Amino acid sequence: MNLAFLLAVMLAAVDRPVIDLSGGRIQPLPLAIAKPLGSQETGTAIEAVLAQDFERSGLFRLLDPASFLAPPDEGMTGIDYSKWVTVGAQALIKASCDASPDVNCEMRLYDVARGQELLHGTYTAPRPALRLAAHRFGDDVVRFFTREPGVFQTRIAWVRESETGKQVMVSDWDGFGVQPLTGASINLLPSWSPDGRMIAFTSFREGGGAHLYTVDVASRQVRSLIGLGDFSTGASYSPDGSRLLFSASQNDNTDVYVAQADGSGARRITEARGIDISASWSPDGKRVAFVSERAGTPQIYTMAADGSDVRRITFQGNYNQEPAWSPKGDLIAFSGRDEHRVFDLYTVAVDTGKVTRLTQNQGTNEKPAWAPNGRYLLFSSTRSGKRQVWMSQPDGSNQRQVTSEKTGAADPAWGPLPGK
Amino acid sequence: MAFGSAESGPRRAMTDINVTPLVDVMLVLLIIFMVTAPLIQSGVKVDLPRASAQQMEHQEEKLVLTITRDRRLFLGNTEIPPADLEKKLSSNARIQKEKELYLHADRSLPYGQVVEIMAVARRAGVESLGMITEPDRELRRP
Predict the structure, then answer these.
(1) CATH number of B125's domain
(2) How close is the nearest chain A Cα to the Cα of B131, in Å?
(3) CB B127 within 8 A of CB B99
(4) What integer pLDDT is reported at residue A101 of this predicted model?
(5) Which domain holds residue B83?
(6) In a domain, B106, yes or no
(7) What pLDDT band is residue B30 in, cutting at 50, 70 and 90?
(8) Per the count of CB atoms within 10 A, which of A2, A7, A77, A194 is most buried?
(9) Do the beta carbons of residue A367 and residue A411 sit within 8 Å?
C-alpha cells in the first residue's frame, strides 16, 4: 500500500467530521441544537421535528439542552465554540425563524471542534408544511455527514386495520401526516412505483376474489390493474418502473407472474406445483426473490427475472416468507417462524447465506420493507398491543414505533427518495 | 500466494520486506502529531496550590472546573451559578461519557468548600476527579 495515498485519505478524513457508515455499528455524532433565535414558536416547532428526526436516525446523539453553557441569545456568528466543546458537542445547529405566518427560517450547521460553519441555508414553506421544511434541513445535514441521501423527506404507505376493513394509508416517514388513499374495504400489500406517484395494492373491493389496483397518491384515483385467475395479489414495481411482479392463482396453482407496468402482457415465470408467491425485485431488476413451498415448506428462493436459474436461499426453519431485497442488493430481509411458532424478522446474505436475526421475544414481527437508502427497515409488530408499524436499522438495532393507530396498522412499504 | 506455503512447497528465504508494521507505526506517529492539542486553557486567574507530586501530561483538552478566590465557579470558561452546578454537570455529555473532571481551585479556598464541590461532582456522575496544581519549583529536601 502506498503511504502517500494513505496520508491523503487520512487528511481528507480529518478535513471535516463524518459519520462512518461503512462499519457494522454506527458511532452516533454528538450534536447540540441551540435554542432558536427569532420567533420562538416557529423555531421551537422546527427544532422539535429536527431533534426527533436525528434521534430516530441513529446517526446522532442529541445533547441535553440543560447542559448548555452558551448564553441563549448567542447569535449565528461570533460563536464561542469552547462553550460547545465543554458540553461535548461535535456539531451544532442553530435556527433563526422570522415571525411571519409562513415558515421562513435560517438554519446553520457548525463544526464545533474546528470552529467553522458547515452549512447555511434559508428554509421556507407554507405553515402546514413546517415539518417538511425541518425534514429538508435534516436531510441536508445527513447528506453532509454521511455523503448519502437521508430519508426524512420520504413517505411511507401502510394499511390501517379495523373491524370495518383494511385501508391503504400514506404518512411521513415518522408516522405524522397520515392520509387515507383508499376506502375501508379490504385493501392490502401496497407497493410504491419508483417515481412515488402511484401505489399498487391488492383489494377485494369488487367482491369475488382479490385483484390488483393502482391508486394515484396525489389524486387518490383508483384504477383496476390486473384481475387474472381466481385471485391476483402482491404487485411489486420493478426498480425502473417498467414491469410488475405479482402472484396469481389459476387452476388451483399459485405462481409468480411478470407484466408490463400498465398490467398488460402478463406472463407466468414459475412452474412448480404448489404455491409460489410474494415476489420481490433485486435492486438491478435482474433477479427476483420469492417464496415457494416446492420443497415441502415455505422457503425463500431467488431466480432470474425470466424464471430461470432458481436457487434456494433459506434452509433454517420451516416457515420463511415475505422476502424483501435490500437496495444495496446484499441482503434479503424476511420473516420466519421460530420454534415458539412466532414470526420474527431475519436477513439472509445473498452471497453467503448467513442469516441474522433482527427481532426476538417482542411479539410477532412481520412484513419487512426497506428504506430506499437501505439504512432502515419498516415492519409490523404486535409488541405494543395492537399491530403497529415499526422501524429498525438492518442489524436490528434502534427499533422504534412509527404508527400509533387505535385499531392497528400493518403491511408497510417505504416510498422513494424525493426527487426520484 | 506469498503466505502459507510452508507445507506445500520447498523452503525459500523470504526476500520481501513486510512493510505493513512500518506503515502502522508511521500512521500512529502521524495521528499523534495531528492530535497534539493545546494544553489546558483557562482564562480565569487563580493562585494554584503548590505540590511536589508528579506532573501529569495533558494529551487533550480536559474538562476543567475552576473555583476562584472569591468562590465563583467556571466550567471551562463559562461562569455558572453555584446552584446550577449539579444540573450542569449531570447533564453534560462529556462528564457522563468520560466520567472525568479536573478541579482548578484557588489555594486560599477553605478545604471544606472544595470538598463540598467535589461531593457535588461525585453526585453528578464524576468518577475520576483530577486536582490541578502548580508544580513546586523550590522543592525542599529534608
Answers:
(1) 3.30.420.270
(2) 18
(3) yes
(4) 87
(5) 50-135
(6) yes
(7) low
(8) A194
(9) yes
Q: Which residues of B touch A (CB under 8 A)?
A: 19, 23, 26-27, 30-31, 34, 41, 61, 63, 75-78, 80, 87-88, 91-94, 97
Mean pLDDT of chain A: 91
ipTM of this predicted complex? 0.70
- Confidence at residue A192, expressed as pLDDT on a 0 to 100 scale: 96
| Start and end residues for every CATH 3.40.50.10070 domain found in chain A | 3-146
Q: Which residues contact A195 (CB under 8 A, 6 or more apart)?
A: A241, A416, A420
Helix (H, G, I), strand (E, B) or coil at A308: coil
Is A86 in Cβ contact with B94 (below 8 Å)? Answer: yes
Q: What domain count does chain B have?
A: 1
Residues of A in contact with B34 (CB under 8 A): 14
- At B10 the pLDDT is 56
- The reply to whether B17 falls in a domain is no
Percent of residues, chain A, with pLDDT higher than 90: 80
Going by C-alpha positions, the residue among A273, A274, A334 that lies closest to residue A302 is A334
Provide the β-strand partners of residue A215. A199, A222
- Give B-chain residues touching A80 at CB under 8 angstroms: 77
Strand A91-97 to A37-38 pairing: parallel
Residue B125 in any domain: the answer is yes
The CATH architecture assigned to A3-146 reads 3-Layer(aba) Sandwich (3.40)
**Contact call for A69 and B78, based on CB within 8 A:** yes
Residue B117 inside a domain? The answer is yes
Each residue of B91-122: pLDDT tens digit? 999 999 889 898 888 888 898 888 899 899 99
Do the Cβ atoms of B106 and B67 come closer than 8 Å? yes
Nearest Cβ partner for A3 among B26, B78, B92: B26
In this structure, what C-alpha cell is assigned to residue A102?
A: 409562513
Test B88 with A66 for CB contact under 8 angstroms.
yes
Q: Where in chain A is the domain with CATH 2.120.10.30?
A: 155-414
Read off the pLDDT of residues A312-365 as tens digits, 9 standing for 90 and up. Answer: 999 999 999 999 999 999 999 999 998 888 999 999 999 999 999 999 999 999
